[in-house]
Amino acid sequence: MNGGGAAGRGGSRPRDRGSFAIEAAVLVPVVLSFALMAVAAGRLQTTGSVVDAAARAGARAASLARSPEAARQDAADAVRQALAARSVTCTAEPTGDPVYGTLATTGGALTTVTVRVSCTVPLSDLVGLDGLPGSKTVTGTFTSVLDRYRGN
User: Fold this and answer.
1) How many Cβ atoms sit within 10 Å of the Cβ of residue 144?
2) Which of 19, 27, 105, 123 fits a 20 to 30 Å CA distance from 69?
3) 58 and 96 in contact (C-beta within 8 Å)?
4) What is the pTM of this model?
5) Domain range list for the chain
6) Residue pLDDT, tens place only, 107-139
């Protein structure tokens, strides 16, 4: 006699042929999803930094302008240039109207100008997959003191 069929062919281990393919089919989409989420989070953080820089540029440009009309135009131009320089595309025209205020200091009151930039970015731009639905609004705000020596 042979002395036991299964034990003679390699012991009592169960066959696991094809289990690697099944595990890969289940795990690969999960790993890719996490990778795409990490890429999107990184791109969203970078886009937020660019929008913050655009708000800084807009506030500084508005603080140097000689009139409120010129401040509005200079701020809008600076915001557009800052976003275009880093290839950030907003689905709508980014806001960037300057708002004036005062800052009380020990040396007297200072006039300030605040620019808030809101940019709605499609998620397909963040992840790099065309046709991905949804969008994310990123906002940056910066306040600058009006330049006392800018002239009238």
Assistant:
1) 20
2) 105
3) yes
4) 0.72
5) 18-145
6) 888 889 999 999 888 877 766 667 777 788 899
- Rounded to the nearest 5 degrees, what angle is found at the Cα of 7, between the Cα atoms of 2 and 10? 115
The tokens of 50 are what?
Answer: 């660019």
Residue keyed to tokens 């020596």 = 149
For the chain, the C-alpha Rg in angstroms (whole number) is 29
* Cα–Cα distance for residue pair 57/64, rounded to 1 Å: 11
Q: List C-alpha distances in Å: 143 to 18, 38, 60, 140.
A: 62, 32, 8, 11
Residue 64 and residue 81 in contact, taking contact as beta carbons nearer than 8 Å:
no
DSSP 53-97: HHHHHHHHHHHH-SSHHHHHHHHHHHHHHHHHHTT---SSPPP--
Quote the CA–CA distance of 116 and 51 in Å, as a whole number. 9
**Which two tokens mark 76?**
């809008």
Q: To which H or E segment does residue 52 belong?
A: helix 19-64
Structure tokens at 118: 């809101």
